[in-house]
Design brief:
433 residues, alpha/beta, Rossmann fold, six-stranded parallel β-sheet, 13 strands, binds adenosine monophosphate
């Protein structure tokens, strides 16, 4: 009954769950998925030190769905077999959405409950019965106190973002919830950090757990001052030239989607007396090394790069990152802006967003779970881009791979640069560079 068509830990999934994973576009498991799925399928408890963006939701959702499916579990009225506690309504709703996505070919029913909205629809759904309940602590306790929810049938309990729960002062609520759980259960505990208070909470919850620690391939975005500039795509050149008049923009990395754009932006800057160099796949290794050395030495102020060419480049004291084009994949945004704010320094990132790029911005904000501030006062501010629905950002049709890529690992996304168009294919988990 396994699904051998997919790789690694995904191969352990029932075909109907594996199918949903493929339909989500995932080809390879992320490290936390690879490490967690086998152990969770065996019923072990878990302490996971991992933050959002590592793929942890699927890491626990997939084995849970499999457990429900194999054991034909049905939640009776007000008594869910799976409870997931999350600190915020956004996170709770996102987890519910993940269950919907990964469980779409299974019979699992799921719902989310949180405060700030009327409780009646939530009560009614609980009355009908669900297998997976995702909840924030306050509303869960309310409904428990009113007798609408009982935890006596919970077999799997997940506490997500425990450190954030503690920061938000939920410790007493969590303890009340834990006190009502049956002793015999599988418990999963996730936290981005493991300070002593978190560890002691974890100890009260789990029994002989498997430990999984994922060091995120992520910078501390908190140290980066991010902003969005909405701008018509034809005005981006003017905008960058304007911005570079600020002497504070001392060492700037500019990310573009395509090689010819890298060349064009570099030429434009040079024409305005701003020292710039480009690195991309069409440049020889010598030219790239030279450009990078000049940038590191401060001989050029601006390095214009495509994502692939910039991979692995580590330059100290980059003051600003400019996303000249919004990245197609939200994770790339995090990699890009991480070029500034290295080694505990702070840094700035400015993203140029035109109307067709609105969807990319939305995906980034969803990944970061935050809204990036908008600079409304730059001279090329474009309202149309700001209010664009972003429908134009649909992926173009897939293209045949060129022979150049034949030696790449199977399923790897064709490279985007140098083709005159971007390609959007399967989503392969990208590990550390
Ligand atoms: P999470 O850490 O659970 O919030 O997931 C972060 C993002 O990674 C979400 O947008 C997921 O859809 C995506 N994701 C999760 N697993 C994979 C995978 N194996 N391959 C590609 N993307 C994934």
């Amino acid at each position: 009954m396994t699904n051998n068509t997919t790789s690694g830990a995904f191969g352990l999934l029932l075909p109907k769950i594996g199918q949903a994973v493929s339909e989500a576009g995932y080809e390879t498991p992320s490290p936390i998925q690879e490490q967690s799925i086998p152990s969770l399928l065996k019923g072990h408890d878990m302490i996971g030190c991992a933050q959002t963006g590592t793929g942890k939701t699927a890491a626990f959702a997939l084995p849970i769905l499999q457990y429900l499916e194999i054991n034909k579990k049905r939640g009776s009225s007000g008594k869910p077999p799976v409870l997931i506690l999350a600190p915020t309504r956004e996170l709770a709703a996102q987890i519910r959405d993940s269950f919907e996505k990964y469980g779409k070919h299974t019979k699992a029913r799921h719902t989310v409950i949180f405060g700030g909205v009327g409780q009646n629809p939530q009560v009614q759904t609980m009355r009908r019965g669900v297998e997976v309940l995702v909840a924030t602590p306050g509303r869960l306790l309310d409904l428990m106190n009113q007798g609408h929810i009982k935890l006596s049938s919970v077999e799997i309990f997940v506490l997500d973002e425990a450190d954030r729960m503690l920061d938000m002062g939920f410790i007493h609520d969590i303890k009340k919830v834990i006190a009502k759980l049956p002793k015999k259960r599988q418990s999963l505990f996730y936290s981005a950090t493991m300070e002593p208070a978190v560890v002691s909470l974890a100890r009260t919850l789990v029994d002989n757990p498997t430990y999984v620690t994922i060091t995120p391939d992520k910078p501390t975005v908190e140290l980066i001052e991010q902003k969005i500039m909405f701008v018509d795509k034809d005005k981006k050149e003017k905008l960058i030239v304007k911005l570079m008049q600020d002497p504070k923009m001392d060492r700037v990395m500019v990310f573009v989607q395509m090689k010819h754009v890298a060349n064009r932006v570099t030429e434009k800057l040079e024409k305005h007396g701003i020292k710039a160099a480009a690195i991309h796949g069409n440049k020889s290794q010598t030219a790239r090394t030279k450009a990078l050395a000049s940038f590191k030495a401060g001989k050029v102020r601006v390095l214009v790069a495509t994502d692939i060419a910039a991979r692995g480049i580590d330059v100290d004291n980059v003051t600003h990152v400019i996303n000249y084009n919004m990245p197609v994949e939200p994770e790339t945004y995090v990699h890009r802006i991480g070029r500034t704010a290295r080694a505990g320094n702070d840094g700035d990132s400015i993203s140029f967003c035109s109307a067709p790029e609105r969807d990319y911005l939305r995906a980034i904000e969803k990944l970061l779970r935050t809204t990036i501030p908008v600079d409304l006062y730059h001279p090329f501010h474009d309202k149309e881009s700001m209010y664009a629905k972003g429908a134009a950002a649909k992926p173009p049709p897939r293209k045949q791979r060129s022979s150049r890529n034949n030696n790449r690992s199977p399923g790897r996304r064709p490279r985007t640069e140098g083709r005159g168009q971007r390609t959007e294919g399967k989503r392969r988990w990208r590990g550390k560079k």
